[in-house]
């Protein structure tokens, strides 16, 4: 069962999300809040698998709430799915930079929302196609201004580096296994080692690091 906390300052939006997610047989909504401070308190109380987080909220925005939640030792297994509207998609990079695992627009369908919760709950990255372009442009800017790759990249084996590139390309474990002609179990082992060596919590952070460090180049090959 996936335990979810929903945080949005619009009551009707929050109620709609809760109804949609609560109707799923594998999802339980354990808490609802209307601002970032409530998000932090609810996350600490319920230790959810996923926090569905709005960005623009009173008292504390969703980015700061995400930062505070994911900085806590008890949140090691918690994932944050950020929800927002078209006019605030400039926050894509910042949300992921503080640890969010997914980014979805509020006009997503019910199926897209429930699927997104399941995707981030299992540790995969989720980016709405409509906002990926802005993210890639920001990766490019970061690459120009911060070209120094983290020293930990040198600790990866050749196969682990290859797996990192494929993760950054959006491939699932099954797809990576097919590409490398190995078992999915072997891929999971490689992914776990990459995360451990690079200090990553999930695939979203792996994607960001790969682009920022120039392992993968926006608009080109790695």
Model description:
With 222 residues, the chain is an alpha/beta fold. The chain folds into two domains: 2-136, Rossmann fold (3-Layer(aba) Sandwich), CATH 3.40.50; 147-212, Winged helix-like DNA-binding domain superfamily/Winged helix DNA-binding domain (Arc Repressor Mutant, subunit A, Orthogonal Bundle), CATH 1.10.10.10. The chain is 50% helix and 14% strand. It contains ten helices and six strands. The protein has a six-stranded parallel β-sheet with strand order 2-1-3-4-5-6, with helices on both faces. Helix 5 (110-121) links the parallel strand 5 (102-105) and strand 6 (126-127). Helix 7 crosses helix 9. The longest helix is centred in the middle third of the chain and has 17 residues, at 129-145. The chain is globular and about 50 Å long.
